[in-house]
Amino acid sequence: MGDQTAIAWTDHTFNVAWGCTKVSPGCKHCYAEEQSKRFGDDVWGPGRERKTFGADHWARPLTWNRAAERESRRHRVFSSSMADIWEDHPTITRERERLWAMIRRTPCLDWQLLTKRPERIAPTLPPDWGTGYPNVWLGVSIENNQYVSRADHLRRVPAVVRFISYEPALGALLDLNLDGIHWVIYGGESGPNYRSHNIRWARDMRDRCAKAGVAFFYKQSPARYTERGITLDGEVVRNYPTAPGRGIELPLFK
Fold first, then answer.
1. Element (DSSP H or E) covering residue 245
2. To 10 degrees, what angle do helices 90-105 and 55-71 make?
3. Which residue, 133, 122, 126, is CA-closest to 254?
4. Residues 244, 236: contact at Cβ < 8 Å?
């Protein structure tokens, strides 16, 4: 898993583990839980062990890093699609330390780390984090207005790129403050029980991002399968942020 991905905003996925515990409405139809069950892995919920991986799995980012160096093109790596690397779980804590070491060994990869637990980021960063690793983007998932405070936690952490995954979009983010945010991904829910959205939520976020100078990425409308309905008002809008040293300077908010 990881060499190919259906996630439109990244090149690879890399999972430190499989398994998590649900924390908010966006988790209700979690595809990672369903996939784990199909493989027969009982790794979901509190008190359950998490599935981990061996040397072959952990060697993959090194291969991607070499490819990126040959191509003179940075590769984006999303970690983790099947877990939350800031879950308070002993296995995840251990594997997260392995991830920091891997990130330091792969300077040609931009690591996109996404969580629903941003309050746990700052206390668990590596000692040499400083103003942020140059190849790490930190993100939070926000599905409705009740959880916009996740962006406040993220904003306090120094990072070259801070992003919001507004997916599955389950409501308007009326109180979201975009200060210190560099990228917003909007995505309707997918899967057999997908929940609908109001297109005005996407239009509003697109327009607010444009006004604030934040890159906006419209991933998809709600549908049974991913990558269905990728246009917004007849246009494919899939913009990316630019990190310092590779284009415009991004503001740093502490």
1. none
2. 30
3. 122
4. no
Taking the C-alpha atoms of residue 167 and residue 178, their distance in angstroms, rounded to an integer, is 16
248/79 Cα distance (integer angstroms): 25
DSSP 132: -
**Dist. CA 18–CA 35, nearest whole Å:** 10
Phi, psi of 10, rounded to the nearest 5 degrees: -140, 170
Under a CB-based contact definition with an 8 Å cutoff, are residues 163 and 137 in contact?
Answer: yes
User: What's the predicted TM-score (pTM) here?
Assistant: 0.92
> Nearest-CA neighbor of 169 among 192, 141, 210?
141
In this prediction, the residues of the chain whose per-residue pLDDT falls under 70 are: 1-4, 243-254
> Quick check: 118 and 141 in contact, CB under 8 A?
no
CB-based contact 176:154 (threshold 8 Å)? no
Residues 6 or more apart in contact with residue 234 via CB below 8 angstroms: none
Q: Which stretches within the chain are classed as H helix?
A: 31-38, 55-71, 90-105, 149-155, 199-212
Residues 6+ apart with CB under 8 A from 214: 178, 181, 182, 183, 184, 208, 241
Burial class (CB in 10 A: 0-12, 13-18, 19+), 22: middle
Distance CA 167, CA 189 (A): 7
CA distance 73 to 245: 14
The angle at the Cα of 160, spanning 157 to 164, to the nearest 5 degrees, equals 70
Using one digit for the tens of pLDDT, what is the confidence trace for 76-116?
A: 999 999 999 999 999 999 999 999 999 999 999 999 999 99
